[in-house]
Write a structure and sequence with these properties.
Chain lengths: ~120, ~110
């Protein structure tokens, strides 16, 4: 079974440009999550999809970030325009959604390393 | 706000040494507790988890963790480390009341000298 995949693995852009990150969850997983790790700090939750609906987007830093999951399969995270502080590793995770009260195991992708110059 | 604290940023040990990585969380309600590991060049993967029951939890590769509710702690242990345990270790929680998001600690980088 294929795991969570993310594309690209690494992106280098200049401040003010736009970048779109993609995540393909494990097949059949309705839940999809985005997290971000800024250099040396903790991995922070950004948002959670259940199928195509945003269940929780409390971690999105500002309106320069737009996440979509059309059709409930893959998801994209667009940063427009990118700022220096957006640099970091963006992780995607997916889960089946069979556990309740936070017991559902999330499976992580390899991450996309974003560098904004 | 809820948070997870990992006491050590970088730990260096020799092979066969014993390991204990500290983790404390700040949340008064019911939590689920996890340790994740990221080996060099690999994905984050689940090492072990605690939801309820026996507070001593055994995970993969000989790791275990003990939940001490009175201390809000979930320390990770391994009696004898190997060079292949070199990785970054993350303590994490999910809240019983908020099923979705994982709250991570800042991570502990473990380096094992062969």
């Amino acid at each position: 079974e294929a795991g969570v995949t993310q594309f690209p693995s690494h992106s280098v852009i200049e401040k003010g440009q736009t970048v779109t990150l993609r995540c393909d969850p494990i097949s059949g997983h309705d839940n999809l999550y985005w997290y971000r790790r800024v250099m040396g700090k903790e991995i922070k939750f950004l948002l959670h999809f259940v199928k195509e609906s945003k269940q929780d987007e409390s971690g999105m830093p500002n309106n320069r970030f737009l996440a979509e999951r059309t059709g409930g399969t893959y998801s994209t995270l667009k940063v427009q325009p990118a700022e220096l502080e957006d640099s970091g590793v963006y992780f995607c995770a997916s889960s089946q959604g069979v556990g309740g009260q936070g017991t559902d195991t999330q499976y992580f992708g390899p991450g996309t390393r974003l560098t904004v110059l | 706000a809820q948070s997870v604290s990992q006491h050590n940023h970088h730990v260096i040990l020799s092979e066969a040494a014993s390991l204990e990585l500290g983790c404390n969380y700040s949340y008064g309600g019911t939590v689920n507790l996890f340790w994740y590991v990221q080996y060099p060049g690999q994905h984050l993967q689940l090492l072990l988890k605690y939801f309820s029951g026996d507070p001593l939890v055994k995970g993969i590769k000989g790791f275990e963790a003990e939940f001490i509710k009175s201390k809000f702690s979930f320390n990770l242990r391994k009696p004898s480390v190997q060079w292949s345990d070199t990785a970054e270790y993350f303590c994490a929680v999910t809240l019983y009341s908020s099923a979705s998001k994982i709250i991570f600690g800042s991570g502990t980088r473990l380096s094992i000298r062969p």
